[in-house]
Structure formats: structure tokens, C-alpha cells
Design a protein that fits this description.
This protein is of the alpha+beta class. 40% of the residues lie in helices and 23% in strands.
Amino acid sequence: MTYRRWFVVGVAFAVIGALVAAFAVFSGNFSPRGYVEDRYTRAASRDIAGNAVAYTSPRPPSQVAKEVTDAWKPADQYVDGSGVYLRYDDDSVVILPIAAGSVILLERMSTAYPRYHSTVGSYWGWGRGSTVRGGGPGSGK
């Protein structure tokens, strides 16, 4: 009897694990980038310099930002009259207003930070993997 119970428990865990794995594979949302790619309309004509990939939404930037941040918590966020700027470890999600809703720009941090520095300035901190070095004593510059 005891072996049978453990067998049933083991099979139950295996089935649950398989369902979780299948859901992860078919949902495709392994990152904020994947989330945006799956939910918003691609707008190649709004891409910037081959670095920022554009998507659109009929919803205003504040609502799009809420959807994205509810699904993926950003490392840093900056909001002003020009839009919503979300920083993740490797990517940025910049949501700007357009006449018919929002344009959502996905870009690697290596090109996004220089592009938006005049806006986000020191508001975007740096997480792990950053190539920006500090200027204090012993910073290894």
C-alpha cells in the first residue's frame, strides 16, 4: 500500500510539472520583450535606427505601462509628460503617446540608455550585468 501511495504522488507531481512546462512553452512570455511581442501590434515603420523595435496599442501609455509592469516588474521606471520609461536588466520598454494610443519601443539597454539619457538621467539605476562603472575610489576605471 505505501509504495502505491508514493507512486500516485509521484505521478501527480510529474503531471503538474508537465502542465507547468507546457504552459510556459506555449505562452512564450519569458521576458518583458516576449510579453510585448505577444500582446501588441508590430509597427515596423516606427522602428528607430534598427535598434528600437516598435509596437502599437490603442490604449494610452499609462494603461500599457500598467499592463506591462503588472506582468513584469521593472528594475526602474521613469514617467513624465513625454512617456513611460521602463528599465529591465537587459532591455528597455519605452511607451510614448501617439494620436491613436501608444507606441511601445523595445530596445537593448546598451543603446536605449544613451538614447534616453537626457530624459531618464539618473532616474534609471543600473542592475547586474551593467557595463557602466562608478567613479569612486577603487572603482577599477
